Amino acid sequence: MNSSIPVVLVQGYGIASGNTQDPRFPGGTVSMQVPFFQLKGLDLSSYFFGTLNVDISPYSFELKDPIFSVSNIKWSEELPAENFSFFECKIEKPSDIGRDVYSALVYWPHPSTKPGFIQPENNLEILSPFIPDLNYGDPLILTAEKNNIFFRK
Question: For residues 83 and 114, what is the distance between their CA atoms, to the nearest angstrom?
Fold first, then answer.
């Protein structure tokens, strides 16, 4: 059974996409990680190499059954190895003529191995195809199966 909640697009650190100029992450962390995920069997070539950061307040979440998990990924010489999980979801962008729906993934660098750039507790990072005309503050709808991601108010 699916569960849908309203979310708001918020500004992240800009590290995943490379929008924040950090010489440790030329092109962004996602573009550096993708080849390692590919070697383990996760093809992210159809996704934008950055994350959508969404605030799910007043909801909280429980991540349950990932579609894909990898451990001990040493994707950067600058940082220790990390563990990652990915959870299926959909992002809906309301428009004047209906809704555009995009298949997406919650991107979850495990906090226990993530060396920095920790997200606020009610924020999720989403990998999706490029979605045109998005702005910070835009309302979106996040949908997931309850056995993958459980939302509670």
Answer: 8
SS3 144: strand
| Domains annotated on the chain, with CATH | 2-152 (2.40.30.30)
> Is residue 58 reached through a cis peptide bond, with omega within 30 degrees of 0 on the bond before it?
yes
Taking all residues of the chain, what is their mean pLDDT, rounded to a whole number? 88
Q: What is the pTM of this model?
A: 0.89
Question: Distance between the two ends of the chain, CA-based, in angstroms?
Answer: 17
| DSSP structural state of residue 119 | P
Cα–Cα distance measured from residue 51 to residue 150, given in angstroms and rounded to the nearest whole number: 20
Chain position carrying tokens 């994350």: 51
